Amino acid sequence: MKIASWNVNSLNVRLPHLEQWLRDAAPDVVGVQETKLEDARFPDAVLAALGYRTVFHGQKTYNGVAILAHDRMIADVQMGIPDFHDDQKRVVAATVDDVRIINLYVVNGQDVGTEKYAYKLRWLEAVHDWIARELQAHPKLVVLGDFNIAPDARDVHDPAVWNDDHILTSTAERAALQRLLALGLHDAFRLHNDEAGVFSWWDYRQAAFRRGMGLRIDLTLVSDALKPLAVASGIDREPRTWERPSDHAPAWVQLAR
DNA sequence: ATGGTCGACCCTCGA
């Protein structure tokens, strides 16, 4: 079972890329972020033609998330974080076969010290408390998404810039990610790969992709129960080379079954 | 050089 996460930065623009990548990579489950589409405009029929069932939780202009599952039923769908009021559509969870999938579009946070940064930390705290409960109910859990946090210095192109005081790498953000992992989750990429400089996001500005100036902020986390089944993982850079690309590349984990 | 490029939308904001 191949499970992936991709921030498409507008599904309206990127639907052809998603279709192409689904054909190329043949993932079984995909969590998509930044669809930027109201639910009425979600292209579920196009994805159904490729064999994918979908659930989606979207809004106009900003945010928006979805889960795609190839040839599999999607059950027990949860939109948003329970008991956490949020007008921003950033979370969808569902059960596919016997695996619970939580798809997150984590708050960006703009800059350390801003109101958006405070919202990011509050939001991560609510996610933490919810996932603690989800793990009790669903030991076979995958948490994936655009985390907008680079876990450590290997995950940034320039650690002097992306330091303890910088957005996406600040001490409090990384601590929030570590608290999530401490619940019994594992960064699947790091189960199979310890090298530095493998990234999932490159800014559109400064020709960052061509110059290798990226960050690894798109993660797939597997629970203790699934860790022994995680046989491979990676980041597929190729869609970032296509014409008019998303600024993110898909990250994936393969579960043996 | 406090920018750069996108996407959505209406002119500027969010990333």
Automatic annotation (TrEMBL):
Could you tell me which Pfam families the record lists for this protein?
Answer: Exo_endo_phos
Sorted UniProt keywords = Hydrolase, Magnesium, Metal-binding
Q: Which domain of life is it from?
A: Bacteria
Which CDD domains does the UniProt entry name for this protein?
ExoIII-like_AP-endo
Drop me one GO molecular function for this one: double-stranded DNA 3'-5' DNA exonuclease activity
Cofactor entry: Mg(2+)
Broad EC category: hydrolase
Q: Which residues form the Endonuclease/exonuclease/phosphatase domain?
A: 4-248
For this protein, what is the EC number? 3.1.11.2
Q: Which family does it belong to?
A: Belongs to the DNA repair enzymes AP/ExoA family.
What this protein is called in its record is: Exodeoxyribonuclease III
Gene behind the chain: xth
